[in-house]
Amino acid sequence: MGYRIFIDGEAGTTGLQIRERLARRSDLELLKIPHDKRKDMATRAELLNEADIAILCLPDEAARQAVSMISNRRTRVIDASSAFRTDGEWTYGFAEMHREQGKKIASAMRVSNPGCYPQGPIVQLAPLIRAGLVPADMSVSVNAISGYSGGGRQMIEKYREMGEDAPVYSPYALEFNHKHLPEMTLYSGLDREPLFQPAVGNYAQGMMCMIPLQLSQLARVPTGRDLHGVIGEHLAMIEGGWVELVEFEAGMEPGDLNPQALNGTNRMQLHVFANDRRGQALLVSVYDNLGKGASGAAVQNLDLMLGTGRQDLAGS
């Protein structure tokens, strides 16, 4: 009998994808709640306490409630909500953000799965800030686009109903107070919140985050290759990571950067573009908002916690 895993909230987009990724594995026993018992507190509590690891795919308040229902000291938790992402008693589940983070996840009792948008900015900005190439107090903007699956069931249904009439590009969170800002700021090492402007595209999944940097404003202006080198050195220290840095290039042809390029995988690709004469650079990250941004990240964290090694995460 394998490790017992309970996905609380498996009917949602992330929960369904996690179950699909785990269903073909022989080393796990997936505990399933009967459909008519999904809202029954006693049944949920029983399964939460029976599991070796509980994966919570719930709204924030429901996730907090689920954690409070675990009465033993054995059940470990991966929470996919934003309830605990900046909680100091929880381990942030992004293994590639620091050389020691994978070990911390492996030994943790409580792991908070990252939000989809912050991962790209964190893995690029954090090494640059630690190395002193980008100051922590620099004013930073993050522009991003995600497939409509990132908005959950209601947005998926809305876009499918609109079909070809759906907007190709639809900015949102224009009050600049997105729920991912606290974790993006904290784990990037920024002293101030970035100006974060996300958008939804008329496609199901896949995302791209872009960070323009006005390096000419700095006392010491790094080159594009300086930025690329520091990010590459950071990734070289990560064992078994899923993030890769594309070779430094001065530019790309239209269409070469595709937010859907890594759909169905747990991979993330990073790019650095720069014009050294102008002192400008652009950091770009491409990944699947349902893969590395959600379900793939949860399975990666699960394997770290169980010590089962790097798995084939849906075609990765």
Written account of the structure:
The chain is of the alpha/beta class. It folds into 2 domains: 3-114 and 294-306, Rossmann fold (3-Layer(aba) Sandwich), CATH 3.40.50.720; 116-289, Dihydrodipicolinate Reductase, domain 2 (2-Layer Sandwich), CATH 3.30.360. It contains 9 helices and 13 strands. The strands form 2 sheets. Strands 8-9-7-10-13-12-11 form a 7-stranded mixed sheet. A hairpin with a 4-residue loop joins strand 12 and strand 13 (280-287). Helix 1 (13-23) crosses helix 9 (291-306), helix 5 (116-130) packs parallel to helix 7 and helix 5 (116-130) crosses helix 8. The longest helix is centred in the last third of the chain and has 16 residues, at 291-306. The radius of gyration is 20 Å and the shape is globular. The protein starts with a strand and ends in a 10-residue tail after the last helix. The mean pLDDT is 93.
